[in-house]
Amino acid sequence: MQVNAIDAQSIAVFDPHAPAGAAHSCSLQLSSSTPLDLQPPVSPYQSKAAAITILQAKSPALRPGFNKDTIQLDVAANGAVLNIPVDVPAGAVWMNAEIESANGADVDLYVRGLSQFNDDNGPQFRSEGTTGSERIAVTQAATPGLSPGTWYLGVQNFASEATSVTLNVEIFDTRVPPLELVFDYNDPNCDDNSAWNDPTPFTPEGGNDATTLGQARRNAFEHALNLLGEEIRSPIPIPIQMCWADLGDGSDGDSVTLGSAGPTRILTNSPGVDVANTWYTAGAALSKAGTDYCRLFPSTACGTPMLNARFNAQYDDSNSSFYYGLEPSSLINRRTDFIALVMHEMAHGLGFLGLIDLDNGALLAGNDGVGRMDIYTLNVIEKQGAFLDRDFTALADMSDAERANAVISGDLRWIGPRTVYRDENANLDPDSQFDANAFPLNTPQLYSPSEVEGGSSFSHFDNQDRWGIMTPTAGFGPGQRTLGLAKYLLADVGWSESPSRIRGGLYFDPAQDGHGFDLYRPGDSNSLIFYTYDEAGRPTWELAVGQPSNRQLQANLQDFSNTGSLEAVQPNGSPNGAEVRLFQADYRGDEVCPTDDVVRDSSGPLYVLDIVNPDESARSSLERYCVQPFAVDAALSEVDFTGSWFDANEPGWGLSVQTLTSNGASVVVAVAYYYDAEGNPRWAIGQAPFEGAGLTTDIVMREAAGYLRGQTPVAIEFVEAGSIALTLNERAASEGAGIASIDLQYQGSEGGVFQRNNVPIQLVP
Ligand SMILES: [Zn+2]
After folding, report:
1. 740: exposed, middle or buried (C-beta count within 10 Å: 0-12, 13-18, 19+)?
2. How far apart are CA 256 and CA 359, in angstroms?
3. 314/320 Cα distance (integer angstroms)
C-alpha cells in the first residue's frame, strides 16, 4: 500500500508513566515498500458518434422540486446513450445518479455539467467499475460544483449485446450526509483485532454501558465516528481499516505509541478535485469524485480501505489507561480519552498531513517518478514579515532545500481560505496577538520546531490550546472531542460542503456603492470584470484573468478598449500596474470584513478584493472591497439563468445576467459590458420582471455616474441609456441558449450607440 502513516507515537498526555502535558509525537512515514499506484485512471469512455443515442428531449420527470426519478434506457451493444438531460433547479445542494443494468452487463456512468457530451467534451465525473452497477454523486464542493442548469448524464454499454439500464437520479436540497466510515471489527487483514472482542469484564462508565472491554471499545469507537460525522460530510461512504496492535507498553517510562493512522491511497487528477497535479488523500478525493475507488480504478477490489489506523492493545492491557466513557465529564486526569484520540488520528488519515519529505523538502513522487505538490502543503506559507505587506512565501514556490529549511526555521501558517482564525471556531480563545479583523493575518500557525520531530513537525497546529485537538500536545481531555479549527483545515484539503472554487456571479460592496465585480470562469481560468468609474465618473470596467485556484485569484487588472472592431480589442496594459487579489473571506457566509462596520448579510460566499500596485507592498497601497453576492441563495429563482453570457461570434462584449425572486416575483437583472464610440469600455445595468424561459424580456438599461475607485463614495446617479431584449432559452454553454438585442445610447462620444439585433448568446461555462 501507499501508506503515509502518521504513527501517533506517544500521544500520552495522560500517560501514567509520563508527566501530564508531555508532548506526543506523530511520525509521518512515507513508505516506499510497495510501488505507488497513483496515476489518474485512464478513462475507457469513448465518444462513439455512430453508436450514440442522443436524447434531445428534456428528461420527462426531473423538474424543479427536488424529487427523484427513474427512467429505463435501452443501450445498444457496445453503444452509449449520452446527453440525458437533468434539470438541476436553483437551491440544489447535491445530486446522486445510479445505474443498474438488467443482465449485469458492464455499463459505465458519466456526468457533465451545463454543456453536452461531444467529441471534445468528455465526462467530468465517471463511474467505471467492472459491474453493471455504477454511481456518481455531484456536490457543490466538487469541480465543477453542482449548479443550476442542465446537466447531462451518459451511459455506456461495454457488452456485446444490448442491455436495459435503470437510471435513478435524485436531487437534494439538503446537506450532504455525515461522513460514513465503513469497517469490519473482524477484518482478517488486521494483525490483531482481538481487542475488539476482548471478553474482559468492563465496568460501565461515562455512559458507556458495555460489560466487556471489547464492546466498550466498539461503543467508544463508534461514538467517535459519529462525532466526526457531525463535522465532516461526504456523499459516499469511505471504507477504512481499524486494527489493534502491540505498539509497546511504554515500560521505558518515557512514552508510548497509542495509535497510528494514515491514508492508504492518495490521488491526483481524479474527477471533481479543484487543484490539478496535486495529491489528495483518497477519502477527500473520492468525496469530490462522488464515487468509489473501485469505480475509478476497476482493478481494485471494492471495499479496499482508504485509511487505516491501529490502536495500542498492549498499552491498554497493561495500563487500562484508555477512557472509554461516552460522556467526557467522567474523564479524569492521567487517562487518555480514546474518543479524542480516535478523532485526532482519523483527522490525520483524512488529510491533516503534509506529504513532503521533511528531511529534504522533496515533493512526493508517484509511479512516474515525478514529484507533485500535495493539497496540504499547497496551503502552507512561510511568514516572513507583515502579512498585509504580503511578505510571505508559499512552500509551493520554494525549492526543496528552501522547504526543508522552512520546516525547521520558519513561521509556517495555514492560509487555506476556510481556516480563518475566528473565535467562533470551537475551543478557540481569541488571543491578542491575532488581529481578528485582519484577514489574512488571522491564520493559524503550524508546528515547526527547530529540529524535525518525526511526525509532529509540519502536520499539526502549533502547540497552543486555541488551535484545538490537532496540536502535538493535544490534551485528549474533556472538551477535546471536536475537531475545532481542524474541521476547517480539512475542508481546505477536500472535505468541504460548499463550492470549493471561487463562485461565479455578480458581487457588490455595500460600503462602496456602485462598485463590484462580475466573476466568471471561462474555460479553466478565473476571470472577473471589475465595474467602476473613470476620472470623470463615467462607468468603465476592467478585466482580470488569472490562473485557476481554489483559494484566490491573483492577476493583473487590465483596461480594455475597442478601437474599431471588437475582434481587435487590445489590452492597454494596466495603467497603474494594478493587480487584483481576491481572497475568499469566509465560506460560511458570515459577516466579516476587515475594513468597515457594514454588515454583510449573505448566504453566499464573501470575498475580499484587494487592488494593489505590485511595486508597492505597503498596506496603504491597497484598495480594499468586501463583496457579497448580488442575490442571496434564498432569492435565487427556480428557473435560474444567472451567469455571464456572450456571443461566441463576437467575443469582447457581453451580458451578466442574474435571475432572482423578489417579493414572490421573478426578476432579471442584466449588466451590459460594451464600448463607446471611442472604444472606451462602458457598462449599463437594468432590471425587469422576468417573463420566463423562452420568452422575451425587455429591460430598460441605465448608466451610472459614480466615482473613481479608491475615492470617497458619493451617491450614484443613473440616466437612462436604452434597452435590451433578452430571450433566454436554456442555461447552457451552447449556441442557441439565448438571443439578445441591444440598443444602448452611451455616454462619452456624442451620439454614440451600441446596437446588436437578435444575436445568439450563450453562457460562459
Ligand atoms: Zn498527531
Report:
1. buried
2. 24
3. 9
Position 244, amino acid = W
- 89, amino acid identity: P
Please give the distance, rounded to the nearest whole angstrom, from the Cα atom of residue 427 to the centre of ligand 1.
Answer: 18
| 151 contacts 116 by C-beta, under 8 angstroms | no
Q: How far is the CA of 34 from the centre of ligand 1 (A)?
A: 24
For the chain, state the CA radius of gyration. Answer: 28
Q: Which residues of 159-191 are buried (b: 16+ CB within 10 A; e: fewer)?
A: beeebebebebbbbeeebebbebebbeeeeebe
Q: Is 616 within 8 Å of 595 (Cβ atoms)?
A: no
* Distance from the alpha carbon of residue 4 to the mean position of ligand 1, in angstroms: 13
Looking at the DSSP bridge assignments, the partners of residue 412 are 382
Q: What is the model's pLDDT at position 83?
A: 85
pLDDT, the chain, mean: 76
Q: How far, in Å, is the centroid of ligand 1 from the Cα of 715? A: 55
pLDDT at 22 over 60: no
The Cα 626–Cα 606 span in angstroms is 7
Ligand 1 centroid to residue 471 C-alpha, Å = 7
User: How far is ligand 1, taken at its centre, from the CA of residue 455, in Å?
Assistant: 8
**Alpha-carbon gap, residue 31 to 546, rounded angstroms:** 37
Q: In angstroms, rounded to a whole number, what is the distance separating the alpha carbons of residues 437 and 451?
A: 33
Beta strands in 516-620 (DSSP E): 516-520, 526-533, 539-546, 552-561, 570-571, 579-586, 606-612
Any residues with CB less than 8 A from the CB of 221 and at least 6 apart, and which? 242, 338, 342
Q: Look up residue 64 and give its three cell numbers.
A: 424543479
Rounded to the nearest 5°, which phi and psi values hold at 57?
A: -70, 150
The tally of CA atoms less than 13 A away on the side-chain side of residue 395 is 37
Rounded distance from Cα 9 to ligand 1 centre (Å): 8
What is the per-residue pLDDT across 419-463, written as a single tens digit (0 to 9) for each?
655 444 333 333 333 333 344 445 788 999 998 886 678 988 887
Distance 343 CA to ligand 1 centre (A): 10
Per-residue DSSP letters for 356-383?
S-TTT-PPEE-TTS-EEEEHHHHTEEEE
486 CA distance to ligand 1 middle (Å) = 12
Residue at grid coordinates 506526543: 24
Mean local confidence (pLDDT), 591-603: 57
| Ion ligand 1 nearby residues (CB, 5 A) | 26
- 194 closest CA partner among 93, 313, 56: 313
> What order of strands is seen across the sheet that includes strand 4-9?
25-30, 4-9, 259-263, 307-312, 241-245
Alpha-carbon span 216 to 197, nearest angstrom: 10
- List, for residues 381-397, the tens digit of each pLDDT value: 888 765 544 567 788 88
The alpha carbon of residue 394 and the mean position of all alpha carbons in its chain are separated, in whole angstroms, by 19
C-alpha distance across the termini of the chain, in Å: 39
Q: Are strands 364-365 and 371-374 parallel, antiparallel or unpaired?
A: antiparallel
Cis peptide before 239 (omega within 30 of 0): no
Query: From the CA of 482, how far away is ligand 1's center (Å)?
Result: 14
pTM for this prediction: 0.72
CA of 347 to the centre of ligand 1 (A): 8
Q: Reduced to 3 states, what is the DSSP secondary structure of residue 231?
A: helix
The H or E element that residue 213 is part of is helix 213-231
